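Internal QA ticket QA-208
Title: Verify multi-chain structure generation after dependency bump
Assignee: T.L.

Test input:
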Amino acid sequence: EDQVTQSPEALRLQEGESSSLNCSYTVSGLRGLFWYRQDPGKGPEFLFTLYSAGEEKEKERLKATLTKKESFLHITAPKPEDSATYLCAVQAADSWGKLQFGAGTQVVVTP
Amino acid sequence: DGGITQSPKYLFRKEGQNVTLSCEQNLNHDAMYWYRQDPGQGLRLIYYSQIVNDFQKGDIAEGYSVSREKKESFPLTVTSAQKNPTAFYLCASTPGPGGDQPQHFGDGTRLSIL
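Actual output:
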């Protein structure tokens, strides 16, 4: 059975204090791994798709990396506006469009 | 601007009542999805539709029903058979059926029991 585990559950950072979020997954053939950002009371907002081990993608202060068993979302010099819940999801090769989501990491960045 | 519109934002259900959540998209996407989000849990798939007049059950379809009569609309009915309906419901879409495109989400409907 496909499984996605995110850690930590919550993370409190000072502004400028870099850190990483982890997404561990087990899936029968990975088609894609997705990172989303979700603000309270809103729908998830797409950040990145990673397809194969070794791939990296960046957007402003965020950088996502992928290995065969896990993905990391690195937040460099975060600002208060980076506060959100970050969701990871995987799509198995045989799942047709279906995503398996992790429970998310809630990030709070204080000034 | 193209996007997904979910309504209402908040909904209250009485015991024994069916309620319908609306999801409309103007992205010209073929595939649409319904998820349920509970605190501390990942999003769970309720139903999905690859194309008009076709839909499949997801992981937690019991107590829910859907229809897909138009490409842009995918309403979800929470029936009285769903005994624990309190949750945040999210609708999503992708350009084509299957594939590895990212899903675009609406801003959700929060359903509570009166």
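Spot checks passed. The two ends of chain A are 41 Å apart (CA to CA).
Status: verified.
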